[in-house]
Amino acid sequence: MGINIAVIGLNRISTSAVMAIMQHDKSLQVKGWDPDLDTRVAANRNPAFQKITKKPKDATRDANLILLGLDVSEKEPILKELAMTAPRGVVLVNLTPPYHHTNQLFHEILNDQFVTFSLYPAVRAKYFHIGSQETDSAKADLFEGCRIYIADSGNTEPAVLDLAVDLSVLLGGKPVIISPEELDGLVSAASVFQQLIAAEMMKTSADRPGWNEGKFVAGVSQFQSTLALDGVLSSEGLAQTAVLNRENLLSLLDGHLRNLIDLREAISEKQAVKIEERVTLSINQRLEWLSDRGGNQASGQMVQTYTTVKEALKRIQNLGK
Question: Are residue 207 and residue 173 in the same domain, yes or no?
Fold first, then answer.
């Protein structure tokens, strides 16, 4: 008997996760739901889904595994509904930040009715140019060879961690165990901070007096510098995530402000050499980052030995028995 998967919150990450698992088992029965009608219509064109439902309870009714791809602003009401309608004992996997806050919601709302854990799958560098989080941009190999971060508060049962590792393997990634707080810090620096800065850069450009004509001159640089905005699931969700991770973000913003002040002083004092040095350093740092992106060092505890795809698939399939 195959397993039934429900995807609640249809975006690039959650849809790619289903497509990755389906590479190993074509018998999966997958239903999906999203609060946005246009997103449901787009997902209906993806052959990975047998059905896109109008209500979350219709997607989760017979589910053995639920993948949660919701924006933070949508999690609490949907989790309250799932607590009343989803099958008891179902495995619920959160795929979106913030992770410490989501773990708190799991505990407060679900009250251990389900098996729950959170993953953060890193995306392959070859797909960096696709900033969109829409379900249409999903790829079955989106996480291939990348780190899959498993949020562990320190009291996760070994069997649940094993299940998280199995799922990470099926997604094509390398499992790394990390605390929810540390994972939130990493995501804040790598994603949330970049999106907020992109928003402010766009605002700065659009607010200047010459923008009415300047927008016709703006091209690749303007587009690329604000590309992070394509990854925003919702403005409300980004704002809530920023507030929930304010300590991490305030530290990042303080550092950014210092750098901007230094740059302003260098320009004001006509220090072209200093500006050149700063830009050269940044270019080299970017090249080093892209080169190291496939490296093996990790902030958390990288799982040194883990199961094969065949073994992982067998254990995941057992959820349906």
Answer: no
Residues 86 and 192 in one domain: no
In total, the chain counts a number of residues equal to 321
Q: Strand order of the sheet with strand 301-302?
A: 51-52, 29-33, 4-8, 65-68, 91-94, 115-121, 147-151, 174-178, 301-302
CATH number of the domain residue 228 falls in: 1.10.3660.10
65 by DSSP, 3-state: which? Answer: strand
pLDDT in tens, 285-301: 999 998 888 655 556 66
Q: Under a CB-based contact definition with an 8 Å cutoff, are residues 252 and 193 in contact?
A: yes
Specify the number of domains making up the chain.
2
Give the tens place of pLDDT for each residue, 49-104. 999 999 999 999 999 999 999 999 999 999 999 999 999 989 999 999 999 999 99
Q: Are strands 29-33 and 4-8 parallel, antiparallel or unpaired?
A: parallel
Q: Which domain holds residue 283?
A: 183-292
HSE value, Cβ hemisphere, 13 Å, CA-based, for 196? 22
Half-sphere exposure at residue 155, Cβ-oriented, CA atoms within 13 angstroms = 2
Q: Which amino acid is at 190?
A: A
Is the full-model pTM beyond 0.90? no
Q: Residue 143: give its domain's CATH number.
A: 3.40.50.720
> What local confidence, expressed as pLDDT, does residue 29 receive?
94
3-state SS, residue 176: strand
Question: Same domain for 132 and 195?
Answer: no
Shared domain check, 265 and 247: yes
Q: Are 220 and 214 within 8 A, CB to CB?
A: no
- The candidate with the shortest Cα–Cα distance to 92, out of 153, 186, 101, 102, is 102
Clarify whether residues 127 and 215 are in a common domain.
Answer: no
Check: CB of residue 140 under 8 Å from CB of residue 20: yes
